[in-house]
TrEMBL record:
This is Uncharacterized protein. InterPro entries: Kelch-typ_b-propeller, Kelch_1. It comes from the Eukaryota. Keywords: Kelch repeat, Repeat. The keyword Repeat applies.
């Protein structure tokens, strides 16, 4: 029996109105700058906006976006629009993804309540409506999440007591049911979960005070190490890294690694301390390898190993960043430096054709310390309807 229920509220409508009113002028200016100015009659007709969303996962509730060209081919305007989602205010390290016409927000750590949540919400931009879905089986934060065969997979994470978990579960939106899907080989938090072909992979993460280099696959209802004739572990131990898919290749980007160091205490005794380091490295993983399978001049693949460790590093070291593939570029946005604690406001992209990194747009008026990137189609409200909604805003609030 489905537990979904609509939670469309005056607050949700208000958020949409504020976002619409604050961006409609800048949208028009952006379109004019690209030679796409519209007549009054054209503005009366709804059309689809293609958005690159940057979702804050640090508790501010911010959801910023840039407008894309049709079919997400490239960025149309670098003007940043920012909305506030009440549903994610005060919520940290939740999972977020796009499936169908909905954006799903799963779990997370609630700063005020001081506990992890099992709550699942979904947002439909087409109707500007939030709905509740059936709760996850386990409350958690800092977990991996991905989509395979129109189902959502949740892997590992951290519980309210601060301990890592190895439990995994799968959600079917058609039936609104969560089911268990095995246990990871070992507990992990801050892991990355990615759908790859017909498989789900779980890579890296944190457990027992260490960062790990595991690469596990979900096969026949069981999580296990890859059983192949080539290296099946990450070449480096990583947590909080970003991942981007390009055809049959996964790119692992940034994150943080750990290293044991001997530190002398005041008594003169040396103790072992785990030190974290923010990474600039990027490497890729491919299973279907053949001659000439490289994606760029700087990304020629080894014909024996699935790993390509010769990719150039990013310009800026970062963890908890968002990554998304747009055309022939991998865009990396936001994140934090472990060493300084500062957010990385300069985004950058990797040119898959040239094999080089380039700085991109800047997100300086919103919190980008911990973000996820999503590509979302949003039907645009007709101009006349926007004016009506503006009048409603002043009547109701």
């Amino acid at each position: 029996m489905s537990t979904k229920k609509s939670v469309k509220t005056k607050t949700g409508i208000h958020q949409f109105l504020v976002a619409t009113s604050s961006t409609q002028d800048s949208n028009a200016a952006s379109l004019s700058a690209t030679g796409d100015a519209q007549t009054e009659n054209e503005r009366e007709t709804p059309f689809t906006e293609y958005r690159l969303y940057v979702i804050n996962r640090a508790g501010t509730g911010e959801a910023s976006y840039l407008l894309m060209k049709e079919n997400f081919s490239t960025i149309l305007s670098y003007r940043v629009h920012t909305e506030t989602w009440r549903q994610t205010e005060g919520l940290q390290d939740f999972g977020v993804l796009v499936l169908g016409k909905w954006i799903y927000v799963l779990g997370g750590y609630h700063k005020v309540q001081g506990v992890c949540l099992d709550r699942v919400m979904r947002y439909e931009p087409r109707a500007d409506q939030w709905s509740e879905c059936r709760n996850m089986l386990v409350a958690r934060c800092k977990f991996g999440v991905s989509v395979l065969a129109k189902k959502i997979f949740v892997c590992g994470g951290q519980r309210s007591d601060g301990k890592q978990t190895g439990s995994c579960e799968m959600y079917d939106p058609e039936t609104d049911i969560w089911t268990k899907c095995g246990m990871l080989v070992a507990p992990r938090s801050d892991t990355v979960c990615a759908a790859y072909g017909q498989e789900v992979l779980c890579a890296g993460g944190f457990h027992n005070g260490k960062v790990h280099n595991n690469l596990w696959v979900y096969e026949q209802h069981t999580w296990q190490e890859l059983d192949r004739h080539y290296p099946h572990m990450l070449p480096y131990s990583l947590q909080k890294c970003a991942v981007a898919a390009v055809k049959n290749t996964l790119y692992f980007i940034g994150g943080s690694s750990s290293k044991e160091q001997q530190v002398e205490e005041g008594s003169g005794e040396k103790v072992s301390v785990t030190m974290l380091r923010t990474e600039r490295r990027m490497f890729s993983y491919t299973t279907q390898i053949s001659a000439g399978d490289g994606h760029s001049k700087g990304a020629q693949l080894d014909l024996i190993s699935p790993w390509n460790l010769k990719l150039p590093p990013m310009i800026h070291a970062r963890q908890n960043a968002g990554a998304v593939t747009i055309g022939q570029k991998i865009h990396v946005v936001g994140g934090t430096s472990v060493e300084t604690g500062d957010p990385v406001i300069k985004s950058e992209h990797f040119d898959l054709v040239r094999g080089t990194w380039h700085e991109d747009f800047v997100l300086k008026n919103c919190d980008v310390s911990n973000v996820s990137c999503l590509l979302v189609e949003v039907p645009k409200i007709p101009f006349k309807d926007r004016r009506i909604m503006q009048r409603l805003k002043w009547v109701m609030w």
